[in-house]
Design brief:
elongated, Double Stranded RNA Binding Domain, 10 helices, homodimer, Ribonuclease iii, N-terminal Endonuclease Domain, Chain A, 2 domains, three-stranded antiparallel β-sheet
Amino acid sequence: MNNLQDKLHYTFQNPARLEEALTHKSAGRLNNERLEFLGDAVLNLVIADALLKQHCKLKEGVLSRMRADLVKGETLAKLAQTIDLGAHIKLGAGERKSGGQARTSILADALEAILGAVYLDGGILSAQKVTLALYENELKHAEPRKDAKTTLQEILQAKKQAPASYEVTKTLGKQHDKAFYVTCTVGKLQSLGQGKTRKAAEQLAAEAMLEKLKKK
Amino acid sequence: MNNLQDKLHYTFQNPARLEEALTHKSAGRLNNERLEFLGDAVLNLVIADALLKQHCKLKEGVLSRMRADLVKGETLAKLAQTIDLGAHIKLGAGERKSGGQARTSILADALEAILGAVYLDGGILSAQKVTLALYENELKHAEPRKDAKTTLQEILQAKKQAPASYEVTKTLGKQHDKAFYVTCTVGKLQSLGQGKTRKAAEQLAAEAMLEKLKKK
């Protein structure tokens, strides 16, 4: 565990917090789920803050997509591997046998839990330092990416295909708590998206369509 | 604006930040969207931290639902009204004429932007103080609520109806980026849910079903 603390550049005042962060729910009742809840919020704030300061001119929507890429499970799991986190995670017997220590979600959750534990142990500034050190490279190379509808439109244009059409096929709920269901159609292919606004549902439908086109 | 700062119990070192937070996108290019992105993250962390410390025994899923209720648009708009925020928001002419200063989303976004502005101006501890002062009552009265599937089950049991059935009607995407589409059926009624896991999609379908039953 000292090895892990070295890699994090952080020494816990109360090492029990680190242990809790390293305990997967398969290993017992005092596990890392609560710390993960906190760590997820720490991570989202630290990355939002870093992106905002690094990119003075980018709009909220672009920053939001950049952050989503940085905080998603795959990115977290990749970073967890750079500090050999899997070797330190406590798993139940079943999870251990099936190779749980290498699973994306288990690695990602444990890393978030560690950030939550550092936050409780040393405050937000310590958690920020640990996060920024882990994310140094990722933040350096983070680039704005286009939204899914724009990407889809460009792909279809390049192939000289007709543009995608979007149709709201269903709405549920009341004024402030609506769900929109949108169907995206490209030729004979259809994909679905659901969101709190029409725009959000269209983006999700476009993302699903991009997945379908990749598989073709 | 001094009046508003009094109500927030915070005085800005750089009042331009407060002005930016109060400028809706309809009023100009330098508006509060970037600050709202940051403030949303500040709010999520401060509330996660407060709930975690206040409720030592509650599981992550319960805390997560409690937070969702506290940070949603309606709650933010209600709190915005307690400090008479609408009167200070700068809107474009069209939005002003149509009563934008009273709209839930405009109030909620501006309040989040203010939290982002306080964070930039005075650091996380100042932002935490302002947030906790605003949320004092809400946090005091926050209660665990059951998840949508459980609530639906209890309602149907009380009415002596058959339980809801859930069916995955579609899955899209690959291993780590899946979307599940679930249909919930209660008698002749059907509702849809989409999520990254089967469980999440079922919960959303159950929420949609609860909405439908309310309207009946």
